[in-house]
UniProtKB/TrEMBL annotation, chain A:
Pfam families (UniProt xref): PQQ_2 (PF13360)
Gene3D superfamilies, sorted: YVTN repeat-like/Quinoprotein amine dehydrogenase
Coiled coil (UniProt feature): none
Natural source organism: Mariniphaga anaerophila
Lineage of source species: Bacteria, Pseudomonadati, Bacteroidota, Bacteroidia, Marinilabiliales
Transmembrane segments: 9-26
Residues making up the signal peptide according to the UniProt record: none
Domain Pyrrolo-quinoline quinone repeat: from-to ranges: 136-323
Protein's recorded name: Outer membrane protein assembly factor BamB
Stored PANTHER family: CELL SURFACE PROTEIN, OUTER MEMBRANE PROTEIN ASSEMBLY FACTOR BAMB
Family annotation (InterPro entries): PQQ_b-propeller_rpt, PQQ_rpt_dom, Quinoprotein_ADH-like_sf, WD40/YVTN_repeat-like_dom_sf
From TrEMBL, chain B:
Domain 4Fe-4S ferredoxin-type: 42-73, 118-137, 145-176
Highest taxon of source: Bacteria
Coiled-coil region list: none
InterPro entries: 4Fe4S_Fe-S-bd
Name assigned to this protein: Electron transport complex protein RnfB
């Protein structure tokens, strides 16, 4: 064979091999052994079975004498829904050498339910882990003596605590909402059962993750409950338990941990609610009571715990945790018609955001504690101007970080509770953070997240297991 | 008779000497082996309370994939449906669909236990030590997911490349007898 023929044969062979390899390379799928992650691989169950609950079935009276007092903290965020006490009672700004004066302390079921106070009585919806029951407990504010308890048997499993809500109290009624959406209305003085409502059963609602966080509202003798499911909001006559109106929910928006906030704007009283699906305003009174006045689905997150912050100029601030961030919106009214415009929406590291607590609106500014995913400002108390919630007016600084605990203003002082039960007193200011004092109130405190309640200078606060009352009065 | 006795003593002496030598040799070998076992060598490990989940363990380790893996302290886990370590922040749904998973390699298996609990299991072979899950769990959960250097994979380089770049100096030499800092057993050191 001639050398030219050998070269030719070799070239053809190499060309054939090359083409073969090319075809193999083009046809081979390097991801053929990859598994596709599809929905349902976790074999999720069909949901917890509904329980037959006899709301209010259990009652026990322990005492009937207590010292009646003058002041109240009748619901979540206080009388004016702003978490600012208007009491003239003078409060300490330093704990002194002896430290916080603890008046009484109570062990409760694991949870984050805060107290309401009404004229010398403290009300808290506890989950009794031994009895396996939701228990509305009534204590004397001054002594901590338990007056009575009313509740109902309910199996609730630990899921970052059980109880989460604060009852609403008026002169006549007590309204509570339990972890599995059981609403109970009682006579305030006697604790007698008025009526009960199993919201999840009645409205086919989905119990929120980690159980109900919505604090019920009593407004003008009506119980206002955001149900989700077959209705969005409902109004119920506290006296009779009769439904007054229901807001249709064609979009199927779900119940969140957020609470309903009353707001009057453009001559219209409304209820502002952040459902899972949308932020809405529902007419509170008049011929159109119960109708949706405005809505925005721009605000749609799977977990929303803070409540809407409604400002006098119609701005509404919403924030939430788990990566949701915040939104500032502007409500407008024209000839009785309402519209909402989103001014800004941003992730948590780009401006004021909060995971559990609702920010304070004070002196034209918003104050809140940043979540852990809040970037360099994580866990710091920050102050912003509502005109630009993404620009910090001040922060508490890298050396002063807090957690998911509550904060409120009373007697011109800002009280902040850290997760571990440390109470900080600061002076609210729109220019800088001014810390006055700090002391450990709950030894070995853990997850102290429940909102504060204050009346007559007595502050009721708790961690996941222990509720304490401390005397803040200036002696 | 006397000669025989002397001869026997010599034999016994040699036998005893051999036995002693053997015993000493065996003892030396055993001692050496024991010292190898109990010798307090040092290995690299991550302090989970110092770790800031920067992601460099995945990119800077000389091993590929990294010798750093996520480990799960089950006794600290909340077994939540909405798990910040498993799901992307603000995910579309609480499901196992790829678009909702935070882990870039699907190294976390999610299993329904009973209402309302879900279990999360790390597949070490798939984990690249990127710390995305640790960041989510630390920010929104109990912090039960955390990074550890796995010593069966680690080359124990003298000049550990991830220790060099760790922004929070969370990677330290620790005695080989205490080679892992598993949360729950290992608690944050007092700041005082």
């Amino acid at each position: 064979m001639k050398s030219s023929q050998i070269i030719k044969a070799t070239s053809y062979s190499l060309a054939i091999i090359f083409v073969g390899l090319l075809i193999w390379w083009l046809q081979t799928d390097p991801t053929s052994d990859f598994e596709v992650s599809l929905d349902g691989a976790d074999n999720r169950g069909s949901g917890a079975e509904a329980q037959d609950v006899k709301i209010g079935e259990y009652f026990k009276q322990f005492a009937d004498d207590y010292t009646e007092m003058s002041e109240t903290w009748p619901r979540f965020r206080g009388a004016d829904f702003d978490n600012i006490s208007k009491s003239p009672v003078k409060l300490i700004d330093r704990f002194g050498a002896e430290g916080p004066k603890i008046v009484w302390s109570k062990e409760l079921g694991e949870g984050h339910s805060g107290a309401a106070i009404y004229k010398g009585l403290v009300y808290v919806l506890d989950y009794d882990e031994e009895e396996r029951a939701d228990m509305l407990r009534c204590y004397s504010l001054l002594t901590g003596k338990e007056m009575w308890v009313r509740g109902y048997t309910l199996n609730v499993k630990r899921n970052h605590g059980m109880s989460r809500t604060i009852p609403a109290i008026t002169e006549d009624y007590i309204l509570s909402m339990g972890p599995m959406c059981h609403v109970m209305c009682l006579d305030r003085e006697t604790g007698d059962l008025r009526w009960g409502l199993d919201v999840a059963k009645e409205y086919q609602s989905e119990v929120p993750l980690w159980y109900t966080g919505q604090c019920p509202l009593i407004d003008d003798g009506k119980a206002i409950i955001a149900t989700g499911g077959n209705a969005l909001l409902v109004a119920i006559d506290c006296e009779t338990g009769e439904k007054i109106w229901e807001t249709p929910n064609p979009e199927g928006w779900k119940m969140s941990h957020s609470s309903v906030m009353p707001f009057t704007f453009g001559g219209q009283k409304m209820y502002v609610y952040s459902a899972i699906g949308a932020l809405v305003g529902v007419a509170a009174d008049g011929a159109n009571a119960g109708e949706i006045l405005w809505q925005t689905t721009v605000w749609n997150h799977s977990v929303v715990a803070p409540s809407p912050v409604c400002m006098p100029d119609g701005k509404i601030f919403m924030t939430a945790g788990y990566g949701a961030g915040s939104m500032m919106a502007q409500l407008s009214e024209s000839n009785g018609n309402f519209s909402i415009e989103v001014l800004s929406k941003y992730p948590p590291r780009d401006g004021l955001a909060c995971e559990q607590q609702t920010p304070l609106y004070w002196d034209g500014h918003l104050l809140g504690i940043m979540p852990k995913d809040g970037g360099p400002n994580r866990n710091q108390l920050i102050c912003v101007n509502p005109d630009n919630p993404q620009e910090m007016v001040w922060t508490s600084g890298t050396e002063t970080r807090f957690g998911l605990g509550p904060y409120f203003i009373a007697d011109g002082k800002l009280f902040i509770l850290s997760d571990n039960g440390t109470l900080t007193i600061a002076r609210p200011d729109v220019k800088k953070y001014i810390q006055l004092d700090q002391a450990k109130v709950i030894e070995d405190g853990h997850d102290a997240w429940a909102p504060f309640a204050l009346a007559n200078g007595y502050l009721v606060m708790r961690d996941s297991k222990t509720m304490v009352c401390i005397d803040l009065n200036v002696k | 008779m006397e000669k025989e006795s002397k001869s026997k003593n010599r034999r016994e002496f040699i036998q005893s000497g051999v036995r002693l030598s053997l015993a000493m040799a065996l003892g030396s070998v055993s001692g050496l082996a024991l010292s190898k076992v109990v010798k307090d060598d040092y290995v690299w490990q991550i302090d989970p309370f110092e770790c800031t989940q920067c992601g460099r363990c995945a990119t800077d380790c000389v091993m590929s994939p990294s010798a750093v893996k996520c480990v799960h302290a089950y006794d600290l886990c909340g077994y939540c449906d909405l798990c910040g370590g498993y799901l992307k922040p603000d995910s579309n749904a609480l499901s196992t669909a790829a678009e909702n998973q935070l882990c870039p390699t699907a190294a976390i298996e999610r299993k329904f236990i009973e209402e309302p609990y879900f279990e999360y299991i790390i597949n070490e072979d798939l984990c690249i030590g990127c710390a995305k899950c640790v960041k989510g769990c630390t920010a929104f959960g109990n912090g039960s997911l955390h990074l550890q250097i796995i010593h069966s994979i680690c080359d124990n380089c003298n000049d550990c490349s991830i220790a060099r770049v760790c922004p929070s100096n969370a990677i330290k030499r620790v005695p080989a007898s205490e080679a892992y800092f598993i949360k729950g057993d290992f608690t944050k050191k007092s700041e005082s």
